[in-house]
Design brief:
Radius of gyration: 19 Å
Distance between the termini: 21 Å
Structural class: mainly beta
Helix content: under 10%
Largest sheet: 6 strands, mixed
Number of strands: 33
Shape: globular
């Protein structure tokens, strides 16, 4: 892990800024997206509800697995999974579906304020019918020099594309330009996927191992799929990390070299594929992609990082902390929450538990899933300012 730059951290902390965001109107991929129409502002001013109904309300089912595209400081897309039936105008089939949210136009390229544009239900059956199986585990591409072009996800539905007759979960790719789905028939039941370079590079885990597909050619690089979790591909598609039965590994795709990083879970790899973060015994550990230069960053769980490892986000007490400092930068408010002050929970008002935070490539945007006791779970975004 490279050294943290205190001036950049201070800049980021000072740039937390008020956000008033328009909310979403949505329809299925078969119909094409439509723009958001209403203003949603029951969250704290610097929060944006990503998983929203067409009227901007919290939907009627749980949402989770939020991810943001890695296109430099733009972060043009967010994808998530939801069991809600009122996010789109299409049939959901009563199963979990994958949704794609694009930011509205007029944004800059240096981490400017994010506003909701279009929402599309990607996992939709042929001719706009309801999907006949659940979809989940979305992944987005993009890097410093390339716009986000595609979305990967896992689905056990058999009617998203024609010819899906294997009766198991497979990997699906959604092309933004063509607004079209394609399927990768997977050896074994698909579990997770990572995408890069316009889906030219796809890495996916199944019950029989981990596979890499480059330019349409598939090869297995890790045998046996038992116990594989937390697959994460770097933005440039050259390295990935995963956990297996309590041990974290990294893999360099070009050299076909695997490295045992250490005991832990929830690994994350930076955009360049140079640095690895993972959780071990309630501590956040950083290493290089060979497992060397190991150090403890601090306490926390579910860590994520920006390119070059300059910013590290992790969870403590249901809040998201930057570089394991004392003040949180991400949290899960409700309509009467005032936000955390001095590292404490908001008061008055209930608060949800944040989990699975993901950062844009340079830390301008933080996407998190929020779990509540008294309302459906949501996916939200924290704008951390330009830098």
């Amino acid at each position: 892990m490279s050294s943290h730059r205190s001036s950049r951290v201070l800049t980021l902390a000072l740039l937390l800024t008020a956000l008033a965001a328009p909310a979403a109107s949505a329809r299925s991929a078969a119909d094409g997206p439509i723009a958001h129409a209403a203003v949603y502002n029951i969250y704290d001013a610097d929060q944006l509800l990503i998983s929203a109904t067409p009227s901007g309300e919290i939907p009627n089912g749980d949402s989770s697995q939020g991810v943001i595209s890695r296109d430099a400081r733009i972060g043009r897309y967010v994808a998530y999974t939801s069991e809600a039936t009122d996010i789109t105008s299409t049939q959901t089939g009563g199963v979990s579906n994958v949704f794609l949210v694009g930011r509205a136009g007029g944004y800059g390229r240096n981490g400017t304020q994010w506003r909701l544009g279009n929402t599309t239900q990607v996992s939709v059956g042929l001719r706009g019918t309801a999907p006949d199986g659940p979809s989940s585990a979305p992944a987005l591409d993009g890097d410093d020099g390339a716009a986000a072009k595609c979305l990967g996800f896992v689905s056990s539905a058999t009617n998203l594309v024609s010819g899906d007759t294997d009766g198991q979960a497979d990997v699906f790719l959604y092309d933004f330009g063509r607004r079209a789905l394609s399927r990768i028939p997977t050896p074994g039941i698909a579990l997770e996927v990572g995408v890069a370079d316009g889906c030219r590079v796809v890495v996916f885990a199944t019950t029989t191992g981990i596979y890499v597909r480059i330019d349409g050619k598939v090869r297995r690089v890790v045998s046996r799929g038992s116990g594989i979790t937390d697959l994460e591909l770097s933005a440039y598609g050259n390295d990935f990390v995963y956990a297996r039965n309590g041990t974290v590994y990294s893999f360099q795709i070009d050299g076909r070299d695997q490295y045992k990083i250490g005991a832990g879970r929830a690994p994350d790899i930076d955009g360049f594929g140079r640095y690895v973060l993972f959780e071990s015994g309630g501590r956040v550990i950083s290493t290089d992609n060979h497992g060397r230069k190991r150090k403890t960053v601090g306490s926390g769980t579910e860590p994520t990082q920006t390119s070059g490892g300059h910013f590290i986000f992790s969870l403590k007490r249901g809040l998201v902390y930057l570089n394991v400092k004392t003040s949180p930068v991400g949290y899960c408010p409700t309509s009467d929450s005032e936000g955390p002050v001095g590292g404490k929970r908001p008061d008055p008002g209930p608060i949800g538990e944040a989990h699975t935070p993901t950062s844009s490539l340079h830390g301008n945007y933080l996407v998190q899933s929020c779990t509540y006791d008294d309302q459906p779970d949501t996916v939200s975004m924290q704008w951390l300012g330009p830098q």
